[in-house]
Amino acid sequence: MTIEVHVPQLPESVADATLVSWHKQAGDRVARDENLVDLETDKVVLEVPAPAAGILTEIKLGNGTTVTSGQLLAVIEPVAAEATPAAAPNAAVATDAGSGKLSPAAKRVVEENKVDPGAIAGSGRDGRVSKSDVMNYLAAKDAPGAANAPAVAVTAAPATTAPATTGPATALKGPAAPASVARGGRGEQRVPMTRLRARIAERMVQAQSTQALLTSFNEVDLKAVNELRARYKDVFEKQSGVKLGFMSFFTKACVEALKKFPAVNASVDGNDIVYHEYFDVGVAVSTDRGLIVPVLRDADRQSFADIEKSIAAFAARARAGSITIEELTGGTFTITNGGVFGSLLSTPIVNSPQSAILGMHKIQERPVVVDGLIVVRPMMYLALTYDHRIIDGREAVQFLVTVKQCLEDPARLVLGI
């Protein structure tokens, strides 16, 4: 009895997807749960696993096809489970490791990230290591290194974010460039936009054309934050298992400012202004495929450690291509950090339908005047781009001043003042 492989049920917000690439060809043997094909949506790349071991007898749709939920993709002729490993050595057969066996999807991620499978504890039957086990291991492993600058974003606004992520093999790879066309000794390439890149472009143009965008600037002295991090970094890491980075301070400071100026946390819906009474902060993350913005839900309720762990996990899963659409959907305010790329100043674009976005920049030692004396301090320029339709200049400036005050005197974050 043949088994049909269908397009999985797409999220309600996603109408269709593009078939990016098949990992198997007709006639190939496949293992159960082995990834057969990648489907790219406006937000993420979805993997379609084999529902059973067998032979892929027929592929119904080719690369580049637009597909919808439930559409038939391929047909598999099942074979005896015990025959699959011997006949298909390349089909991601589970490998013995101190932690048990690796599923095909987990094996791919392990190989991509050069991880020792023996260090991963399996949560599946008989100690089987699943892809999620590997993702959790990577998140914990990378957490310390990701603290200083959480994955970060380009200063161009996030696509509705959610943008992106994809299967381990193709996740962070850009589209293959076609051969150059020679013209008088000068070549050129024409590459179609991926769905993600096209969506980013659409969202950026939409924000520019539908919102009255204006950017205000300020600068912040990070001496106090640096001293606090230096003083408590060891005990913080020992207790939480993650390094104390900058992003948790900026997230907390923004939440305090959002509480004081609710219009910055609001959005426009027709002729109405929707004031959100919760604080879902998006953190822009740059990947090779484009910009994604995972969302820290209820950031006001998260501790510094919670925020650092979440951002580290987002960064690891963005690289591995396992972020879910739910994690990339929504958000009431966004923070983007172009400083890790060396940006000194920029004007980020609002992630519509949000009404504001904070741009962080490079920390640079500069001479400043403090109490009448010229001193050298670690300074950062801050930029707030906002929708002038509902946010006045006064509110925008005071929002930035509040963020500045919280960072220059971190005790305010503890006292909530």
Summarize the structure in short.
This protein is α+β, with helices and mostly antiparallel strands and 417 residues long.
Instruction: Pick out the low-confidence regions.
Output: 82-100, 144-177
Number of helices: 9
Q: What would you report as the Rg, rounded to the nearest angstrom? A: 24 Å
Just give the CATH class of the largest domain: Alpha Beta
Percent helix? 25-40%
Instruction: Report mean pLDDT, rounded to a whole number.
Output: 80
Secondary-structure-derived class: alpha+beta
The fourth-level CATH homologous superfamily of the largest domain is Chloramphenicol acetyltransferase-like domain
Overall number of domains: 3
Strand content: 25-35%
Shape: globular
CATH topology-level name of the largest domain: Chloramphenicol Acetyltransferase
Describe this structure in words.
The protein has 417 residues and is of the alpha+beta class. The protein is built from nine helices and 23 strands. The protein has helices at residues 83-87, 104-113, 131-142, 195-210, 223-240, 247-260, 304-320, 393-408, 411-415, and strands at 3-6, 17-22, 29-30, 35-40, 45-49, 54-59, 66-67, 72-78, 96-97, 100-101, 181-183, 186-188, 213-221, 266-269, 272-275, 281-283, 285-287, 290-292, 295-296, 333-337, 356-360, 364-370, 373-387. Strands 13, 16, 19, 20, 21, 22 and 23 form a seven-stranded mixed sheet that branches. The protein has a four-stranded antiparallel sheet with strand order 1-8-6-3, with no helix packed on it. A hairpin with a 2-residue loop joins strand 9 and strand 10. The radius of gyration is 24 Å and the shape is globular.
